[in-house]
Sequence to fold (222 residues):
Amino acid sequence: MLPLPAPPYQPPPGMPAIIHLDDSLIVLDKPAGLLSVPGRGPAHADSLASRVQMEFADARIVHRLDMATSGLLIMARGLEMERRLSIAFQQRQVEKRYVAVVAGRPSPDEGEIALPLITDWPNRPRQKVDFEAGKPSLTHYTLLSHDAARDRSRMELRPHTGRSHQLRVHMMAIGHPILGDELYGNEDSRGAAGRLLLHASELNLPHPLTGASLHFRSATPF
Fold:
């Protein structure tokens, strides 16, 4: 079943909370409903990147979060830090952890989802599992708690690859869509929450200038 048409873009106002700031990078806490970078057309020009760049002109995006996802996002300061942070992401030196609430209870309580993903071109921006042409994609999940009365589970998700919509497609593919997911959920899971219940809760990475270990956390807002 295809999702309903997207509502008009009405992002929450204000500067995203700054978790960390130095001469090399900025770590921000993105609210749900705000694009990471400008989208197509003037109606989608407002974004986390454009807001931050109004105050820090040298800030540059090195990774993104889906508009509906909240949580930690890093921006580099200047071209050299952008290059170094991009390499850190490519070499998987950046550990990302998410919290999600999903329908049902995955079994076993901890495991890996290794399903190759590719863009579903006729239905962009949707992604899909494709065993012939998809790119290798790996997600590790751990059950944090289960609400038996409402048959939903709070999960920690750790992507080992960084494909578009990876966590959302992987959870849907094993029969446990993330609640509030307009793109990949079924009718019940889409209506079970007023937003996508997916939050980038933790980032661990080496500092791009000093190499020191950095650890950032953001409280899950749901």
